[in-house]
Amino acid sequence: MPDVAPPRPTPTLLQLLVAFTMIAIFGFGGVLYWSRRMMVEERKWMSAEEFNEAYALCNFLPGPNIVNFAVVFGRQIGGTVGAFLALLGLLGPPFALVTFFGLLYAHYGNIAVLQRMFVGVAAAAAGLTISTSLKMWQPLLRERPGIPHLVALATLAGVGVLRWPIYWVLGVLLPLSIGLAWWMRR
Predict the structure, then answer these.
(1) What is the domain extent for residue 178?
(2) Is residue 95 located within the same domain as residue 37?
(3) Same structural domain for residues 102 and 120?
(4) Is 83 in the same domain as 162?
(5) pLDDT at residue 4, as a whole number
(6) Which pTM does this prediction carry?
(7) Is residue 3 predicted with pLDDT exceeding 70?
(8) Which one in 39, 98, 110, 183 has a CA-CA gap of 20 to 30 Å to 146?
(9) Residue-averaged pLDDT of the chain
(10) Around Cβ 51, how many Cβ atoms within 10 Å?
(11) Does residue 33 sit in the same domain as residue 83?
């Protein structure tokens, strides 16, 4: 008998707002880690593959990736209202916190202890980014090596190793990878 995946829970609009609010509150240094953790691991609203596909689409769209993700996911769950609530949850708390901390920093930013704390926060954010990148690679690593792996390695080599401009690398590899995906599915 084939394995049938259990149905995924569908969040309510309130759960959607709360989830993106929590992502925003915990997501210092970037919210990719927290959005994946919330959507895939904790709430199980998406599979790892679905998250990677949605995030890849949001990378391709103009604007901040996670803002695009909030709108795409929110609209999928609750239409225009869902998109608005996800966006409000994602952008509202950081706006309020940055405004508050900006005022505090304007008065107390010269304190040496505070400067050292910023270095620690930056290191933690870098660690979260590396951890999330490794988790996002897991679905790709389960597959037999093929063209998607070569495209990913070419991107890493072009941008990360050779330090070519990302727009040139993506300008070549995006159409190439779309063409290869189309050709492989024929």
Answers:
(1) 145-186
(2) yes
(3) yes
(4) no
(5) 63
(6) 0.62
(7) no
(8) 39
(9) 87
(10) 21
(11) yes
Q: Name the token pair of 107.
A: 């008065």
Token pair of 89, please? Answer: 């949850």
Cα angle for residues 77, 85, 37 (degrees, 5° grid): 65
Cα separation, 30 vs 37, in Å, equals 13
The three-state DSSP-derived secondary structure of 111-161 is: CHHHHHHHHHHHHHHHHHHHHHHHHHHHHHHHCCCCHHHHHHHHHHHHHHH
Residue 16, pLDDT > 90, answer yes
Domain count, the chain: 2
Q: Measure CA of the first residue to CA of the last residue in the chain; give whole Å.
A: 28
State the average pLDDT over residues 77-105: 92
**Do 136 and 151 share a structural domain?**
no
